[in-house]
Specification:
- The complex is a heterodimer of chains A (about 110) and B (about 110).
- In chain A, the strands form 2 sheets. In chain A, strands 2, 4, 5, 9, 10 and 11 form a 6-stranded mixed β-sheet that branches. In chain A, strands 1-3-8-7-6 form a 5-stranded antiparallel β-sheet, with no helix packed on it.
- Chain A is globular and about 40 Å long.
- Chain A has about 110 residues and is mainly β.
- Chain A contains no helices and 11 strands.
- Chain B is mainly β and about 110 residues long.
- In chain B, strand 9 and strand 10 form a beta hairpin.
- The N and C termini of chain B lie far apart (about 35 Å).
- Chain B is built from no helices and 11 strands.
- Classes of the chains: A mainly beta (about 110), B mainly beta (about 110).
Amino acid sequence: GQQVMQIPQYQHVQEGEDFTTYCNSSTTLSNIQWYKQRPGGHPVFLIQLVKSGEVKKQKRLTFQFGEAKKNSSLHITATQTTDVGTYVCAWGTYKYIFGTGTRLKVLA
Amino acid sequence: NAGVTQTPKFQVLKTGQSMTLQCAQDMNHEYMSWYRQDPGMGLRLIHYSVGAGITDQGEVPNGYNVSRSTTEDFPLRLLSAAPSQTSVYFCASSSGDRYTEAFFGQGTRLTVV
């Protein structure tokens, strides 16, 4: 089945540094969603991208969908300790395929 | 508003025992699904349902059974628990509108000894 690869698997950053996670697919995706999962918690929806080349921002978070709709990225500017968690990409409508996630640790 | 409610939150089973993980949603969502989450592997789809009376297998269905008699409930049954089923299980629902997001329950942490 179609897989969505996510890199890196782990990232430790100093508070105030930037962070980026990437999601890559071998085939064209209809959409891409991003979720955040706090330690011990459940995935919570952040945003969805549908159009080729789409860019969306949520405060310090910037989400991009590639021109070929095969990759996506999530960039966090000036990380804070509240950003700690696992960021997971997914695609689908009701049957979702999830990436493996990037676990972010922020050192104060 | 409750959203998606899963019970229990924690469970320890002995090998060979059976049990049912409960999932209920109060958002009138058509689509419901079960995922398991293992370290380094992300969320993998076990079974899903596109409406009452309709279920289908996902990526890792072996050892699990589901049924959907009502729109609200989607229980997951472990027929004969095995240590390989030790995992965190999440139930999710979505409205079925095009490109809608998934709403997740709090999860059930299951250990099979």
